Amino acid sequence: MEPRVTCLCPKSNFSSLTNLKKLSLFSPSISHSPLVKSVNMVCLKTNSHITSSPIRGCLVQSSLKKVEHLISEREHSLVKIKRKKLAVFVSGGGSNFRSIHEACINGFVHGEIAVLVTNKGDCGGAVYARENGIQVLQFPSKKGEPDGLSTSDLVTALRNAEIDFVILAGYLKLIPLQLIQAYPRSILNIHPSLLPAFGGKGYYGMKVHKAVIASGARYSGPTIHFVDEHYDTGRILAQSIVPVLATDTAEELAARVLKEEHKLYVDVTAALCEERIVWRDDGVPLIQSKENPNNYC
């Protein structure tokens, strides 16, 4: 079967393809626009010449210029914003931590993970951090473990590392008030249900998904919220809906919710690092659209 592709016009600039990839990397929302979707092409490099696959359509030069203009605007806006330093807190494997780290590396998140904080020094997230040259701090301190930090020492360490934001990604300890006060409106957490439902002390991991199924709820999904001194009661910033199927087990629902968590947390972290979080007069946080600053979600 003939491949489903389009091609470049003979006079098109191949450098624009590189920029198109770059644009998709920076902004998946832009890459799914009709303009960029139309560039569904495959090019073959032969003997240092670029040739196109069988013709089904043509990307005109003006479209490439529009793409390059979007890239230029995106990069110009980020030049004005300082690259943010993040501290991520984990207690387990840290799959959300890994997703955010990868997004930082590939440029979608305008930040870097400078510190990983964990209450379990041998957890999967801590191992991954050490393998990738990320400083690991143990908190809170435990009896018989001299490397554990007190709250005051942790705040000092984060300030010395010039941390801008704290991201909780499966960290099961309550965040102390001293840390919250040191980083007001700068600590995010993700929870695997649509808060305020199925949240609070004791609701974590598979317990959440079992409770959702037992309740008969038709929808679940992750919630990202700012952190206050209680479990899961801070201001909600973003949510993503996941249908609960009639035949779902807790494990099946958990897998689908986790997949949404990875997407949502990366998108929200990107907005945070780009300073697109806006607080309404009544204290509700909103995310400013990247493409249209007059739109919020």
From TrEMBL:
Pathway: Purine metabolism; IMP biosynthesis via de novo pathway; N(2)-formyl-N(1)-(5-phospho-D-ribosyl)glycinamide from N(1)-(5-phospho-D-ribosyl)glycinamide (10-formyl THF route): step 1/1. InterPro entries: Formyl_transf_N, Formyl_transf_N_sf, GART, GART_AS. Residues 84-269 form the Formyl transferase N-terminal domain. It catalyses: N(1)-(5-phospho-beta-D-ribosyl)glycinamide + (6R)-10-formyltetrahydrofolate = N(2)-formyl-N(1)-(5-phospho-beta-D-ribosyl)glycinamide + (6S)-5,6,7,8-tetrahydrofolate + H(+). It is found in: Plastid, Chloroplast. Its EC number is 2.1.2.2. The keyword Coiled coil does not apply. Its main location: plastid. It is an enzyme of class 2 (transferase). PROSITE patterns: GART. It comes from the Eukaryota. It holds the Pfam family Formyl_trans_N. Keywords: Chloroplast, Plastid, Purine biosynthesis, Transferase, Transit peptide. One of its GO terms (biological process) is 'de novo' IMP biosynthetic process. GO terms for cellular component: chloroplast. PANTHER family: PHOSPHORIBOSYLGLYCINAMIDE FORMYLTRANSFERASE (PTHR43369:SF2). Belongs to the GART family. This is Phosphoribosylglycinamide formyltransferase, chloroplastic. It comes from Trapa natans (Water chestnut). The lineage of its organism: Eukaryota, Viridiplantae, Streptophyta, Embryophyta, Tracheophyta.
